[in-house]
Design a protein that fits this description.
Distance between the termini of chain B: 39 Å
Chains: A mainly alpha (304), B alpha+beta (366), C mainly alpha (85)
Number of strands of chain B: 21
Largest sheet of chain A: 2 strands, antiparallel
CATH architecture of the largest domain in chain B: 3-Layer(aba) Sandwich
Shape of chain A: globular
Strand order of the largest sheet of chain A: 1-2
Shape of chain B: elongated
Largest sheet of chain B: 6 strands, mixed
Oligomer: heterotrimer
CATH superfamily of the largest domain in chain B: P-loop containing nucleotide triphosphate hydrolases
Structural class of chain A: mainly alpha
Strand content of chain A: under 5%
Number of strands of chain A: 2
CATH class of the largest domain in chain A: Mainly Alpha
Distance between the termini of chain A: 19 Å
């Protein structure tokens, strides 16, 4: 109400049209569009090239024709991959690992974040920082110690972990849990304190406060975290390369590299097709949950 | 329905004592308002009654039972928060019924109670909306509805109106009073706004620095403040304080304000202050309405003097005047037709029948 | 206001790039003649492919000091952001 009053007062004296901007701003906007377009082209060219190449036969790929045009489009790469048991096996392993990892991650990081954000206990702040710190330690630092650890565990207990796809279920959460917990801590912290106090007075236990208030309210953040966890598990390359070797245990990225590159022979058509098919699930998920994801990324920036 | 009792309640955060030993008896059905400046411990006290804060020492009783270690959900209380604290993902009806659903009330009972509360608060047609589709006043009603449906022993209000604009605040104030008249639940209400406290309360508890300054009915606090803090806090514009001293002149007790201005005390007041030391620095407390334009035939005990006004504020039904006396800025309320102008000389009269005499050091009203 | 965020993202991409494995492994595998190895791929070559786990671990440990410095700065900035909010 107050703002309408202000506008009606200012309107008669104001000669500038609404919505017009100063020249400075217009140029700033043009430059930002220019660079945005540049980056968009830069990042879209590789997928486009993948698509073009995936539609070519091996003969056409090796022929010295214009690489940016398909003269004899063919689906033979798609057909051969989608009918190959090996490829479907990789795909299945990837999907299975990713789904289980996402589930494990959410089951751990949501309650953990709730506890760290809301239950003030001794050392909770330090613990929250620690969670973030673990996220800063890269996989390339850890894979050798982890390899040794799993080897030792295998020697001691007889439980064979190396070269089994399920070892990835143990390792991937080390990547996903810290980050998801960190996102969710930020999310939960942005929920006003009075909301859980109201819930407590209404008779909710901590668990009910989490499930009936916090999770629904922080759903955008939860979905952002889920997407992140899925993307990480789907695209992780180093760990499966180190820990799995048999072709029936491989996940998609490693599978494509190992099975479609034979020595120096690159089966480019199938590699591109496999990569494209492999990129599809995250793409589809992003497309569906895009709005939530963006809402999740920008949440907490302003007080809603 | 229950009474609430606080016995020597203390709250300490590390080194800071936020609440320093509070004794308070709240009767069944009573509407008690805790009022005081920010940081006086009023909210902490309320949150201790709610069970959201542990008490460091002392006892809190609700309905005769000591609830020191009883969790909030078992205290049978309902609370309305300053920022409403509505669950954003639930509709109005779901918000209001959340507590009942957690306690597994039968569906029919829940619906009946929600409908009843919605009708009482005039939000029946909003029942399927989400909080973000509501205005501030409507959200506040929903927050109150959420408290009402529970039929709790005690209502707790934590500055519920401070997020609303001035007009709406007045309206909701009346609304809260109406609701209390209907449901008659014991209510503890916290605010920093003394007008809100005066208009709502059966009894007002004035707090300062973690202690209770005075407990009383609104009129009682206004006319018989016990301390300088209460005298200055209650009432708007605030009470004037002028340095003064008592003198005996020709066997009669006089109050001297300046070298030029001294008034004989009316008999009742003189009798009351007979035992007070003479010629000591004191404070005279006078409400603005007891400083007015001088009349031709003054009442006994009303004494006139001349001054020059600094500033005047015409309010329509009255004009507020400001002048300086012994370095203190004094506010008075005169008739709009009395001819008060900025910088103009004026003859004013003080009504000493309604004066207060305060010890300057301790702030105690004598 | 943006300084902190920019600092955090910069340091973060520094860490990620520094500790990268996938891209180098796939593009060159460290070849030709081990000319394009970085810590991660070299550690992999020695530790996993060469089965010399202790030596591979030592190679990757060389990343720690630089990562630690970046981590300290990030944590400082993150905490600062927390204080502002």
């Amino acid at each position: 109400m107050a703002s309408t009053v202000v506008i009606s007062k200012g309107a008669p004296t104001r000669t500038v049209k609404y919505g017009s901007m100063s020249r400075d701003r217009i140029w700033a906007l043009r430059w930002s569009y220019f660079f945005l377009a540049l980056f968009a082209i830069f990042s879209l060219v590789p997928p486009l090239y993948m698509l073009i190449t995936s539609l070519k036969s091996s003969a056409e790929i090796s022929a010295a024709t214009n690489p940016w045009w398909v003269f004899h489009p063919t689906l033979e790469n798609y057909i051969s991959l989608l009918t190959s048991n090996q490829f479907l096996r990789f795909f299945w392993n990837s999907a299975w690992v990713s789904i289980v990892v996402v589930t494990i991650t959410m089951l751990i990081s949501v309650p953990a974040a709730f506890a760290l954000a809301r239950m003030r206990f001794w050392g909770s702040a330090t613990l929250a920082t620690g969670v973030f710190l673990t996220y800063l330690i890269p996989d390339s630092l850890l894979f050798i110690p982890l390899f040794k650890m799993f080897a030792v565990v295998g020697d001691w207990t007889g439980i064979q972990l190396i070269n089994r796809w399920y070892v990835l279920l143990l390792i991937y959460p080390t990547l996903t849990v810290p980050f998801c917990t960190w996102i969710m801590i930020g999310y939960f912290a942005s929920i006003p304190k009075e909301l859980d106090e109201a819930a407590i007075i209404d008779g909710a236990s901590w668990f009910q406060t989490l499930t009936r208030i916090f999770i629904p309210v922080a759903l955008p953040g939860l979905i952002a975290a889920t997407i992140f966890a899925f993307t990480v598990s789907w695209a992780q390359f180093l760990y499966p390369l180190v820990f799995t070797t048999s072709t029936d245990q491989l996940v998609l990225p490693v599978g494509i590299i190992t099975s479609l590159i034979k020595g120096d022979v690159f089966n480019w058509g199938q590699i591109m097709t496999g990569a494209l098919l492999g990129a599809a699930p995250p793409l589809i998920i992003y497309a569906f949950l895009m709005d939530y994801y963006i809402a999740g990324l920008t949440a907490g920036a302003t007080k809603g | 329905m229950a009474d609430v009792t606080l016995r020597k309640v203390i709250k300490r955060y590390d080194e800071v004592e936020a609440v320093r030993g509070i004794d308070l008896d709240i009767a069944d059905h009573e509407f008690v308002v805790l009022v005081g400046p920010s940081g006086c411990g009023k909210s902490t006290t309320l949150r201790m009654i709610a069970g959201l804060e542990d008490i460091t020492d002392g006892d809190i009783m609700i309905g005769g039972d000591v609830v020191n270690d009883v969790p909030p959900k078992d205290r049978d209380i309902a609370m309305v928060f300053q920022n409403y604290a509505l669950y954003p993902h639930m509709t109005v009806a779901e918000n209001m019924s959340f507590g009942l659903r957690l306690k597994r009330f039968p569906k029919a009972e829940i619906k009946m109670r929600v409908d009843e509360a919605a009708r009482m608060l005039d939000i029946a047609e909003l029942i399927d909306r989400k909080p973000k589709q509501l205005s501030g006043g409507q959200r506040q009603r929903v927050a109150m509805g959420r408290a009402i449906v529970r039929h709790p022993k005690v209502f707790l209000f934590d500055e519920p109106l401070s997020n609303l604009d001035a007009k709406l605040r007045v309206q909701m104030r009346i609304e809260i009073k109406k609701v209390h008249q209907k449901v008659r639940t014991t209510t503890v209400y916290v605010t920093h706004d003394q007008v809100e406290a005066m208009t709502l309360a059966d009894r007002v508890v004035v707090m300062n620095h973690g202690r209770i300054e005075q407990i009383g009915t609104p009129n009682d606090l206004y006319h018989n403040p016990a301390t300088r803090f209460v005298a200055g806090f209650i009432g708007s514009p605030a009470m004037n304080f002028v340095p003064c001293r008592l003198e005996d002149v020709a066997g009669k007790l006089h109050i001297r304000l300046t070298d030029r201005i001294a008034f004989p005390l009316p008999p009742k007041r003189a009798a009351r202050y007979q035992g007070v030391a003479r010629n000591e620095k004191m404070l005279l407390g006078l409400r603005p309405e007891h400083i007015a334009e001088a009349k031709a035939h003054p009442q006994p005990g009303v004494e006139a003097f001349d001054t020059v006004l600094d500033v005047t504020e015409p309010m329509g039904m009255e004009t507020l005047i400001y002048f300086t006396l012994e370095g203190a800025q004094i506010c008075g309320r005169v008739n709009p037709n009395a001819g008060a102008h900025d910088g103009a000389p004026m003859r004013l009269a003080v009504d000493l029948n309604n004066m207060h005499l305060l010890n300057e050091v301790t702030g105690v009203v004598l | 206001m943006m300084r902190n965020i920019i600092a955090i993202t910069t340091l973060f991409s520094l860490i990620v790039t520094f500790a990268n494995f996938d891209i180098v492994r796939i593009l060159t595998s460290g070849g030709p003649l081990d000319h394009t190895h970085i810590f991660a791929t070299w550690a992999f070559r020695i530790g996993i492919e060469g089965s010399d786990i202790p030596l591979g671990a030592s190679v990757s440990l060389f990343m720690v000091p630089i990562l630690a410095i970046a981590a300290i700065f990030i944590l400082r900035d993150v905490n600062k952001r927390g204080n502002e909010a």
